[in-house]
Amino acid sequence: MSGAALGLEIVFVFFLALFLLHRYGDFKKQHRLVIIATLLAWYLCFLIVFILPLDVSTTIYNRCKLAVNSSPAETNGSYVTLAPSKQKCFKPWSYIPNGIMPIFWRVVYWTSQFLTWILLPFMQSYARSGGFSITGKIKTALIENAIYYGTYLLIFGAFLIYVAVNPNFNLQWNQLQTIGIAAANTWGLFLLVLLLGYGLVEIPRSHWNGAKRGYLLMKTYFKAAKLMTEKADAEENLEDIMEEVRKVSESIKYNHPLRKCVDTILKKCPTEYQERMGRNMDDYEDFDERQNSYPSEKSLVKLHKQVIYSVQRHRRTQVQWQILLEQAFYLEDVAKNETSATRQFVHTFHSQEPENKIIQYFYTPTVEWYWECLLRPWFYRVLAVVLATFSVIVVWSECTFFSTNPVLSLFAVFIQLAEKTYNYIYIEMACFLTIFFLSICVYSTVFRIRVFNYYYLASHHQTDAYSLLFSGMLFCRLTPPLCLNFLGLTHMDATISHKNTQPTAYTSIMGSMKVLSFIADGFYIYYPMLVVILCIATYFSLGTRCLNLLGFQQFMGDSEMTSDLIDEGKELIRREKRKRQRQEEGENRRREWKERYGNRDDSTRNRAVHTDQKESSFSETNANRPLSKYTRSNGRTERDRIELLQDAEPLDFNADSINDDPLESDSGR
Question: Which parts of the chain are coiled coil (predicted)?
Answer without folding.
Answer: 224-251
